[in-house]
Every structure is written in structure tokens, then in C-alpha cells.
Design a protein that fits this description.
By secondary structure, the chain is mostly helical. The chain has one domain (3-103): Winged helix-like DNA-binding domain superfamily/Winged helix DNA-binding domain (Arc Repressor Mutant, subunit A). 53% of the residues lie in helices and 11% in strands. The chain contains 5 helices and 2 strands. Strands 1-2 form a two-stranded antiparallel sheet. It is elongated, with a radius of gyration of 15 Å. The relative contact order is 0.17. The model has no long low-confidence stretch (mean pLDDT 89).
Length: 108
């Protein structure tokens, strides 16, 4: 991951509601959630949710897919893992430490 992409992803997550939305989607896993379920789960208005989903999509952390009349939002787990890899790439000066790649989500 390039620095510019990491900054974009981190800045998208640096807002409380967007972080809550992203965490809810990660919790749902690859099957994702509809905006209605997300709005009800997070107790947020549809317009507010739409704004935050757009920002997360722009950062590449969330994808959208149409399923008939419904939209499904999914976390981009590969992008999340790439961000985590970027953040710990130089952890502990190359020495073993508590932050291991095994702790990442690979089959969420």
C-alpha cells in the first residue's frame, strides 16, 4: 500500500460514525449489510449513513453491490489487511514482537 492510500483510509476511519459503520460491516463479514440494516443497527438516519458510506467507498474500505432492488455494502477486507500490513511493516525494527500477521482477518 502506498502512503497516499494509507492516509486516505486512515482519514476516512478518523471519524466516529464512519468507524462505527466500518466495524459493523467487518462484523457482518463478506455477506455485508443493506443500508436499512446498518441504519437500524447504528441508529442513524439514512442520509447521514449514505454520506459516511460514500466516504468509506472513496477510501476503498467499503464496496457496494446491487442485489435486485437492494444495495449491499461489504467491507473490503483485503484493503483493511493491506492497511494493517502497511502500519506494522517496520514494527520492532524487524525483530519478533506481539503484533503478528496471524492476528489479521483472513477468512472473515
Amino acid at each position: 500500500m502506498e502512503e497516499k492510500a494509507a492516509v486516505s483510509a486512515l482519514s476516512a476511519l478518523a471519524q466516529g460514525m464512519r468507524l462505527r459503520v466500518f466495524r459493523a460491516l467487518v462484523g457482518a463479514g463478506p455477506q455485508g449489510l443493506t443500508p436499512g440494516v446498518l441504519a437500524a443497527t447504528l441508529d442513524v438516519s439514512a442520509s447521514t449513513l449514505s454520506f459516511h458510506l460514500k466516504e468509506l467507498m472513496h477510501a476503498g474500505l467499503v464496496s457496494q453491490q446491487r442485489d435486485g432492488r437492494h444495495l449491499i455494502y461489504r467491507p473490503e477486507l483485503a484493503r483493511m489487511n493491506a492497511l494493517l500490513d502497511y502500519l506494522v511493516a517496520h514494527c520492532c525494527g524487524g525483530e519478533p514482537c506481539a503484533a503478528t500477521p496471524d492476528a489479521r482477518c483472513t477468512d472473515c
